[in-house]
Amino acid sequence: DDDAQSQGDRERRRRQHAHAEPRHSSRAHGDMRNATLATCALNQWALDFDGNYERIAQSIALAKAQGARYRVGPELETCGYGCEDHFHERDTETHAWEVIGKLCEDKELMADVAVDVGAPATHRGARYNCRVFIVNGEIVFVRPKRALADDGNYREGRWFVAWTRVNETESFALPTSCAMYARGGDGTVPFGDGALEFDDGSLGSETCEELWTPDAPHISLALNGVDVVSNGSGSHHQLRKLDARMNLIKSASGKAGGVYLYSNQRGCDGGRLYYDGCACVAVNGELVAQGKQFDVSDVEVVTATVDLDEVRSHRGAFQSMSIQASNVPRIPFIRVPFRLCDADSTPSAPTTTRPVRFHIPEEEIALGPACWLWDYLRRSGASGYFLPLSGGADSASTAAIVGNMCQLVTKAANDGDETVARDIRRIAQLSDADPIPSAQKLAELIFTTVYLGTDNSSAETRERATALAKEIGASHLSVVIDVVVAAVVGFFVMVTGKTPKFKVDGGSNAENLALQNIQARVRMVLSFLLAQLLPWVRGKNGFLLVLGSANVDEGLRGYMTKYDCSSADVNPIGGISKSDLRSFLRWGANNLGYPTLALVEEAPPTAELEPIREDYVQTDEEDMGMSYDELGVYGRLRKISRLGPVAMYERLSKVEWKHRNLTPREIAEKVKKFFFFYSCNRHKMTTLTPSYHAENYSPDDNRFDQRPFLYNVRWPWQFRRIDELAAKTEAKR
């Protein structure tokens, strides 16, 4: 359609949409420019167009009820950020614009407010990740993303292209579902890199990744005099990440002055990531409003009243900025008759500054995976969770997270969240007349734990599992599975005529591993059997989701049996290190009401798959040949620092472990041992249970850590070079 327009028609539209310079400087001196603005955190779900529409509409209504004249929402909120290859389907974009059309159709909802929503848009044969600006129910501007996220968990370049024509706009023919809502009535709006100019202020935007880039759009917008910059984001939770994000937000509004609104998704939208909200508003480098980072509510609106004249004053006192602003390339301004400040009411006082609210890592572990599990449970159609509870640190951490999930949702329901209350009653199979249960009672209804013991299990782990399940309120079973293990081993003996033995009884390493693995795999089979049939046994409908509990360090080392209890439906701790989990256990014993967690943390980690003898007790770190703390170091150097075997040896010997009582040859052997086991077990990552992403050195093969799974595990060139360096260093000493 665009190509069919005459050159003269396109030029006329360009002049109409892009001629304006900021005009609010000519206002009367006595006018006050106090604007109430809103940002939000929405729990959107990929391809849930009905639900996404309802949450967007609810956030707009709440923003207006709080006096806001502008509302910004998360990235791609109409369709959900995590659609992935569904973005290649034309339906996804079509339905996203149908959501926008339905919003514009609601005249009462969209009256007297400017709204900024995220949606995909195809323009001249290229698909863009866009912000769509709607004022008084009319679409006025579409702004495509200039810098795409293409690292770590993100693959935006697979589905979108970046807009590279800086400071340029074109005419865009709106999809049929929205053409009638174009300002001007001809079905077209400006599309490209520009900003909106209102009667009393100006508004520009950037999207998620653009905040993190060196040449961030907010700098150019500020130098062009734009008062307010918004950011619709889809940013995931990662332990200890929030301070980096908040520093960027404060810097974005502080370095060049201005108001910065940040919106984000919050929740699990269908994948491994948990988007952690924290919608906020910053003015001239100071935070004035901040939403929750973790919550089970679907919609949160954060508003702040800001003095736009404070922005001008801040910039006016910054002389070097004024000099740069005088010769910066000009961006196109789209003139829209609308006031950010409500002229019909007494201006509210500006919102005062406040400190940033950060959670400690232990709180992040308690809250993030718990909210992720709640979203997964309520959207999966399952009737609860099932966990093989061994009494060890990993499964105890998973159990505590589920217990905290029950605490969070019952509190939200009792505080008046009707959506959470409905979900609780549906999942727990309660009637509308039933009261919201206590957290412990809810755990009894939707959370089953089972201790799957063998002759190799200790009384201590059995007792810890039982005590912890009681504290949480879970429905708990304690069973012995030796009869099943014996039947499988007996079948092998019958077929081969050979009887395998454990190492402590004189068996070979192959026999020892096989006997351990069969116990672990039997536990997996029995777990899925019980999860599928226990609701039926109890006279209920549905099924239970099986929870895994392997930590990120075990995945990195491959210290797990393929297709054992690490093979589950979901794993809330698969992206968390052992050291962080142990800190969480100590914290949870005092703060979650589960004192048994302290006893679990004090016990040495053990798989309990080999027979216990007076002179031998199996432990994880002895089995692995390295400590969990060392694994954390290897993991960060391998992934975050991007070091191969030789570079890792040099970093450890010269920096990280320079003062440890280790010889160069001992460090060399440790590095070689790690890379040997990492590479020979890498195939296990291809079947890794979908895990909550929380750690930047996760070995998740699905997308975050894409590497081969068939290696030359001897690493001959690299290991030979390490040996040469170690020998050279020792010779010098």
Automatic annotation (TrEMBL):
GO terms under cellular component: cytoplasm
Known EC number: 6.3.5.1
Pathway per the UniProt entry: Cofactor biosynthesis; NAD(+) biosynthesis; NAD(+) from deamido-NAD(+) (L-Gln route): step 1/1
Region (Disordered): 1-32
Pfam short name (any one): CN_hydrolase
Basic and acidic residues composition bias: residue spans: 18-32
GO BP terms: NAD+ biosynthetic process
Family, similarity comment: In the C-terminal section; belongs to the NAD synthetase family.
Protein name in the entry: Glutamine-dependent NAD(+) synthetase
Organism of derivation: Ostreococcus mediterraneus
